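Worked example 3 (structure in, sequence out).
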């Protein structure tokens, strides 16, 4: 089972009623916190800057055509 908590003044405070008796040995593993700003070097946050034009202006309307060979939708309706 996973318990979540926070370190305050050198003591781990476990969230909620955990039911662990005093003296229970536990293993603690820090969890990385996400920053409000996009961290540098993390490509998922930079995905918009990595996009490149592919020459298909109707890709959203004709995705099934380009992926599966379905007939093209000419007027934007299906």
């Amino acid at each position: 089972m996973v318990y979540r908590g926070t370190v305050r003044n050198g003591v781990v405070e476990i969230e909620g009623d955990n039911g662990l008796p005093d003296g229970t040995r536990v293993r603690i593993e820090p969890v990385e916190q996400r920053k409000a700003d996009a961290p540098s070097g993390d490509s998922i946050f930079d995905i918009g800057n990595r996009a490149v034009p592919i020459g298909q202006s109707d890709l959203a309307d004709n995705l099934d055509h380009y992926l599966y060979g379905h007939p093209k939708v000419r007027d934007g309706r299906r």
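Notes: Residues 38 and 48 are 12 Å apart (CA to CA). Residues 63-68 form the longest helix (6 residues).
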